[in-house]
Structure prediction request, 89 residues.
Amino acid sequence: MALRAHPHEVVQLVVKDGAKFSVVGLLIGVIGAAPITQFMKSLLFGVTSTDPVSFIGVAILLIAVALLACYLPARRAARVDPIVGLGYE
Prediction:
């Protein structure tokens, strides 16, 4: 914002970068979870170890929480006056 960026551009940049990291982390997690499901079969009751509804539901929930965790601080930071923000540095 000190370089003439609009507040919505700052929020968009932070959320976009957060979304990229979240999707990469989610993909790594799903790839890592796939082989582990075979060990979890004995602990599950009423669902299969590779239940697509569970995998998709958890993925959507994690992405939503990650985007909210990026959006709220970005929105708050976009409200700060640039002179005040630079003064703390």
